[in-house]
């Protein structure tokens, strides 16, 4: 009995009919021989396929591990760069603030040194001067104040040459109506060089009353004027007995532009 081992499947056994152990002649059939079962052998293609799958799995696993390692390393470097950038910003901010603080202090100091003193005043009526048309004013009580200048004897003393805004308001009130007399409201100044009064603002009211038993009228003056140091600015009215002594309605003010 011979077996062709190069043929994998199915198993075929060749039987020699002319064996010497038989009782028959050369042409007689020999005894039947039963084929033994053989162990199954896998085809070469199947063996190679299993080995290739294992190699691919190992390769994919290695690539996955490398990818994960690369991602982790990249995330670490990104976090580190962010931390360094934050520290750099903090250091630059603190440095700039330290450098800026002396500059700001210096600028503020210069601004304070160069800041001009405010020169202004708002006076409310006090009374009319006896025997004179010049009005007297209250410099400190209520809404009245003076800043950077002085009030003396019914006049504001100018202590710096420049342009000033002047304003004056009078409330006139009476029970009779002298139609033949005009009321003159005037703002004027005096100086050491020119003793005479120099008119700055003037309002002449002719029809300021009516035939009614009680009447009121008002006069308002305002303008920007050039004043010199040591000028004295005052207000007078031709009929001081008609001036209302209410501080909210009769006042006089000035401020430097």
From TrEMBL:
It is found in: Membrane. Pfam families: TNF (PF00229). The keyword Transmembrane applies. CDD domains: TNF. This is Tumor necrosis factor ligand superfamily member 6. It comes from the Eukaryota. The chain crosses the membrane at residues 58-79. It comes from Huso huso (Beluga). SUPFAM superfamilies: TNF-like. Keywords: Cytokine, Membrane, Transmembrane, Transmembrane helix. PROSITE patterns: THD_2. Residues 119-257 form the THD domain. InterPro entries: TNF (IPR006053), TNF_dom (IPR006052), Tumour_necrosis_fac-like_dom (IPR008983). Belongs to the tumor necrosis factor family.
């Amino acid at each position: 009995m011979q077996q062709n081992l190069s043929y994998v499947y199915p198993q075929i056994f060749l039987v020699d009919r002319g064996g010497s152990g038989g009782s028959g002649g050369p042409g007689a059939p020999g005894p039947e021989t039963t084929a033994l079962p053989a162990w199954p052998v896998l085809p070469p293609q199947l063996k190679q396929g299993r080995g290739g799958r294992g190699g691919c799995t190992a390769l994919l696993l290695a690539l996955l591990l490398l990818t994960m390692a690369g991602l982790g390393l990249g995330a670490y470097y990104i976090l580190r760069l962010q931390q360094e950038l934050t520290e750099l910003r903090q250091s630059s901010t603190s440095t700039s603030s330290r450098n800026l603080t002396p500059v700001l202090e210096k600028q503020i100091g210069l601004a304070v040194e160069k800041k001009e003193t405010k020169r202004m005043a708002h006076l409310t009526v006090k009374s009319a001067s006896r025997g004179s048309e010049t009005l007297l004013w209250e410099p400190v009580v209520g809404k009245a104040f003076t800043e950077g200048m002085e009030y003396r004897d019914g006049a504001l003393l100018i202590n710096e040459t420049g342009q000033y805004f002047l304003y004056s308001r009078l409330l006139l009130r009476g029970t009779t109506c002298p139609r033949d007399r005009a009321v003159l409201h005037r703002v004027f100044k005096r100086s050491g060089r020119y003793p005479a009064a120099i008119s700055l603002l003037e309002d002449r009211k002719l029809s300021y009353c009516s035939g009614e038993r009680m009447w009121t009228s008002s006069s308002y003056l305002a303008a920007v004027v050039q004043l010199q140091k040591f000028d004295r600015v005052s207000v007078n009215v031709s009929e001081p007995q008609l001036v209302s002594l209410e501080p909210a309605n009769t006042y006089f003010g000035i401020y430097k532009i």
